[in-house]
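Example complex used in Figure S2.
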Amino acid sequence: MISRVADHCFWLGRYLERTETTARLLSVTRNLSFDGNLTPLQCWLPVLIVSGEEPRFVERFGIETASEGEAVERDMTWSDDNPASLRRSVNAARENARSIREVISLEVWEAINELYLWTNGRAGQSEYGADRHGFYRHVRLSCQLVSGLLRSTMLHEPPLNFIRFGKLLERVGQTSRVVDVHHHALTLVEKSHKVVETALWLALLRACSGFEPFMKRSQGRVTGDAVADFLVFEPLFPKSVVYGVHAAYSRFARIRPPAERDLPGGVTLERLRALDAWLARSAAARSPEGMHDLLTHVVDETSGICDTVGREMFGYETATESAQ
Amino acid sequence: MSENVSTLFDGYRAPEGTWDELFEGPGLPRHDVRQAVESLGTTTAEAFVRCQSLAELALLNQGVTFSVYADERGTEKIFPFDLVPRILSARDWSNLVKGLKQRVRALGMFLDDVYGEQRIMAEGVIPRELVLGAKHFLPALSGVRPAGDVRVHIAGIDLIRDGDGTFRVLEDNVRTPSGVSYVLENRLVTKKVFPQLFEKARVQPVDHYPARLAEALRSVSPRDPETSTVVVLTPGPYNSAYFEHSFLARTMGLELVQAPDLFVDDDTVFIRTTRGPRRVDVIYRRTDEAFLDPEVFRPDSLLGVRGLIRAWRAGNVTLANAPGNGVADDKAIYAFVPDMIRFYLSEEALLQQVRTLVCYRDADRREVLDHLGEMVVKAVDESGGYGMLMGPQASAAEREEFRRRIEADPRKYIAQPLIELSTCPTWDKETKRMEPRRVDLRPYVLTSRSGPWVLPGGLTRVALRAGSYVVNSSQGGGSKDTWVLKGAA
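Predicted assembly (813 residues):
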């Protein structure tokens, strides 16, 4: 497989995942803000922090604007200055797809292109004004359609493996950040405020589409530690950190089999293996106090793996060059 | 017959002195295509407009677009598509096919000769200076015999139809002719929106083009065709024809590469992959030859694949089309194609062309200068309507300017009489009715090791503006599906 094409596949996967997660996060946060249990700032600031956009947003609009849902939503949906905005993620996914149209199936391309045309056209903008949840839902469903079409209309060979690999690494980073930020957000809440705390954790579950899976595991008992534990360590929940890391490792082992030592990708494979093993050990000795350090390590290591695979397989000269 | 043709074509009338592709006279479809025209005619205007917008939406969603400005991101437009097909009878088509094959064969032999012994010049059939002076003649490539022995793997021969309905070659494209993806996409859309009509008309299929192209490319590989690696080379997503490059790669199941994906080692071409280098045997290149190899064409350029021409010369890779082909589609050389056919094949040309005066020849030049007001003067190495004088419409000052230019550099100019292009009914969104609009036709000829093959039909381009003769997409042109009807069963 051509290195440049692999790079585009990888980033297509990442942007598709990012688009879906952002749409879900905005939709869930909007819901949460209507409950009135939390201050607007408690609702919306974490959204900016998770996407890494807090410093830019605060400098541009001021911290008080971070409590205006409309302003945060507008920025996180439409802004061209915000590299994490929905529009930019959709456009970047489409741009990567357009560069490898002959690699993805026609149905995948059409679904991505239609999402791009809808988001950038009148239809998407009027939906945003008329029915905000309908808007986020449309984006989310489009991404899910693409995911399904990827699996069902493409050969299960390297291009698809790179797309899935990109999606998995993006998801690991996203889940880790979102859990970590909510941990942080809870420090802003008075400890005794049980209702508020529960509302936040339930929102977090919904943002990771983990509400029902969690309830099945916990039989309705909602505590912060249990939710964080579930989102990080549940081995059978596809959005959990351990699931994502393990799946990324096995996916990459299909691209670069451990036995084929002469092929490029050996360092990436080893880093993934090490992270997977480290998480398994950490799961045995876990504690709520260690959560922040654990998540920080996962986030750092994930971004390090992205750079390594870029240098080993996509032909990046430096850590910063890529199809993004 | 007129009572059968209701609603859609009511009041349709082609201009005097012009051949109309579908109608012999008002309300009177041409005999060979009557059935198809009559069934299309029973469509109501409302239904037609609905189908037309469905078709446009389908093209947009599929991203069947071209970039308007190559350097400005995000300006993609669909190539305007008119749903009324251009219909050719089986008889007309089979005559064209014979002529096209003959012509492409002769052009290939001419190129072999020009880059080999140069017999046609030695025997005085074409003036030596005319060939050597052609802008796209590349003396550096002399003596190369390309692997697979084919130079014009893909040709696009532009045809027009004069007032009597005679097809004439307007120009040859033997470098990197484009547009075939629209032929295939237009057909898909037509079948989607007019399924019954299409089925009744018995139209020859076009969807095997990618398979035939892949087969032709593989057949000229320097190594075993079965195990050869064939790739499509594109300048990238910002090229105006990127859609077509990716379309062809996708439909042939080949990899689409850009120059930085390739490198040459020991006169052999390799592709950079996630599993290390892999050898490449055939490159269908859709890049301009000036950007193929900086070693040969632009020493100062960073674009291209360094050493590619050395690998080609060594016979280790096939380039389709071969570099250097531009000398054969030079507008002055065009005038000599019938002579070429006689010289190489001992046959008379089966296809007419447009009478062409070559200003390089004294007698021709005198005639041109005496009749500037009646002629179309063209610079031999320009295209897309640039460097042209439309004699009848030009001012006295413009004519004087061209007289001066022709006298200063006669090699650079040819002149032709103004030809009426044929018309075809075309939906006009302003007047909301069918109007006659000018069309041309670009058939595609593929040449494999075993000889030429012609795709049934080709690209019909249409000038969407009233009275216009310009069919280029950059200047308000659109396209139509081209139907070649099957012969009597």
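Residues 3-314 of chain A form one domain. Chain A touches chain B at residues 1-6, 95, 98-103, 106, 109-110, 113-114, 117, 158, 255, 263-265, 313-315 (CB under 8 Å).
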